[in-house]
Specification:
Structural class of chain B: alpha+beta
Number of strands of chain A: 4
Distance between the termini of chain B: 34 Å
Strand order of the largest sheet of chain B: 2-1-5-3-4
Number of domains of chain A: 2
Shape of chain A: elongated
Radius of gyration of chain A: 18 Å
Structural class of chain A: alpha+beta
Strand content of chain B: 15-25%
Number of helices of chain B: 8
Order of helices and strands of chain A: HHHHEHHEEEH
Number of domains of chain B: 3
Number of helices of chain A: 7
Largest sheet of chain A: 4 strands, mixed
CATH class of the largest domain in chain A: Alpha Beta
Strand order of the largest sheet of chain A: 2-1-3-4
Mean pLDDT of chain A: 93
Low-confidence stretches of chain A: none
CATH superfamily of the largest domain in chain A: Glutaredoxin
Mean pLDDT of chain B: 94
Number of strands of chain B: 11
Low-confidence stretches of chain B: none
Order of helices and strands of chain B: EEHEEEHHHHEEHEEEEHH
CATH architecture of the largest domain in chain A: 3-Layer(aba) Sandwich
Largest sheet of chain B: 5 strands, mixed
Oligomer: heterodimer
CATH topology of the largest domain in chain A: Glutaredoxin
């Protein structure tokens, strides 16, 4: 645990250095931390508040405002199930239900082993391929409940 | 100090002189013209959160629109209507939305009555969801601008927006001064002193503080953390605060 904290402190320190401890770069700093750890650890936010001389309340306010930031650990893979109109009429709700059952979590949460985070989106802009399930940057088109298991299995 | 330029404007058909740079709301209040508002306080910068101070303006060039009077500086030749039919109907919806948001708040009920609104057509929120908070952030602004510790802020977004301490946990920055309690327009924040303890309860988080006892009269009068803060800011010794205000005279 100690090593992890030290590593986090060093990484956040480097990110703060990169932006020269500039208050105005708060969002960029948080984005870098989010990119590196897939969430914003509490300790990191406290370090940012000291490093940029911004009150913790303000850092927390910004961190909870943007949807791109998460305060809870997120999975290694992000699953986005499209709930747009085109996907909806082709039965994306069944697909979502199947994924939820397979992973044992509800949309919006993360599996215990931190492998997957499941979220829904309202359109990924590829309606011709619906129903679409986007895993990280990969698009799985024409999804069906039968395909769910094999798609999930292809990620480690 | 150099005096600012004066401008002439009309509010509710009264011709008035006002210093340039002042906001319509300030000028109206100085002249005993009532404009309702909840989120303004002379101690902090105007913010425009509650929207109740909306007025109808016509600029010197003839442009008409609705603006929040707390944020609109007076200008030469401006005509302001604080109580036209249009304003009344907009204000009615605003206060009805607040009534639905905080069904428990007497302040909002009273203000609604004053504006001639009895009921709200909107579904009432659960009393425990928002408590009495209208999210005007006056407490957070006072905490930042006046007290200077920024212990509380608005968090989350949209329908989930709340006023809270960071992580909804006791804040290391809060000194327990109670300024937020004092300025809250809807009494959404509570403060209670019992014995040597002070409790501050925000709508969604709360904290406890240890109070210092006055060496003369024995009453508990100020949180230890507030003493630390004042001592640090003023460069005085924390021991200077052993005697309460009343006993010092």
């Amino acid at each position: 645990m100690g090593d992890e904290n030290k590593e986090l402190e060093e990484t956040v320190g480097q990110i703060l250095e990169k932006y020269r401890h500039d208050k105005g770069m708060l969002v960029s700093v948080l984005q870098d931390i989010q990119a590196k750890y897939r969430y914003l650890p509490k300790e990191a936010l406290k370090q940012v508040c000291q490093g940029l001389l911004v009150p913790l309340s303000q850092v927390y306010s910004v961190a909870t405002f943007f949807k791109a930031f998460s305060l809870l650990p997120r999975g290694r893979h992000l699953i986005n199930v499209c709930l747009g109109t085109a996907c909806h009429v082709r039965g994306t709700d069944k697909v979502l239900e199947k994924i939820e059952r397979e992973l044992g979590i509800n949309a919006g949460s993360t599996t215990k082993d931190l492998k997957f985070t499941l979220e829904t989106v309202n359109c990924v802009g590829a309606c011709a391929l619906g129903p679409i399930v986007k895993v990280d940057e990969e698009y799985h088109g024409e999804m069906s409940t039968d395909k769910v298991v094999s798609v999930l299995k292809s990620y480690t | 100090m150099k005096k600012n330029k004066m401008v002439t404007l009309t509010i509710d058909s009264r011709k008035l002189q006002a210093e340039e740079g002042l906001m319509i709301l300030d000028v109206a209040r100085d002249n005993n013209i009532y404009i309702p508002s909840l989120c303004t306080n002379e101690a902090v910068e105007p913010y425009g959160a509650c929207r109740l101070c909306l007025v109808e303006i016509t600029t010197a060039r003839g442009r008409e629109r609705l603006v929040t009077s707390c944020l609109y500086p007076v200008e030469e030749g401006l005509t302001v209507k604080t109580n036209s039919e249009r304003i009344a109907s907009v204000r009615k919806v605003l206060i009805q939305l607040l009534m639905a948001r905080c069904p428990d708040s007497e302040v909002i009920q009273d203000l609604a009555k004053r504006l001639g609104v009895e009921t709200t057509p909107f579904p009432l929120e659960d009393k425990n969801k928002n408590k009495k908070c209208i999210l005007c952030a006056l407490c957070a602004r006072v905490c930042q601008e006046v007290v200077g510790v920024s212990a509380i802020s608005l968090v989350n977004r949209g329908v989930n927006r709340q006023l809270a301490t960071p992580f909804f946990e006791p804040s290391e920055a809060c000194i327990g001064c109670g300024s937020c309690v004092y300025v809250c327009p809807t009494h959404a924040i509570a403060m209670e002193d019992t014995g040597d303890k002070r409790e501050v309860r925000w709508p969604h988080s709360q904290m406890e503080f240890k109070l210092r006892k006055c060496k003369v009269c024995g009453s508990y009068w100020i949180p230890e953390r507030q003493i630390e803060h004042i001592a640090q800011v003023s460069g005085t010794s924390p021991d200077d605060y052993d005697v309460c205000f009343s006993c010092r005279e």
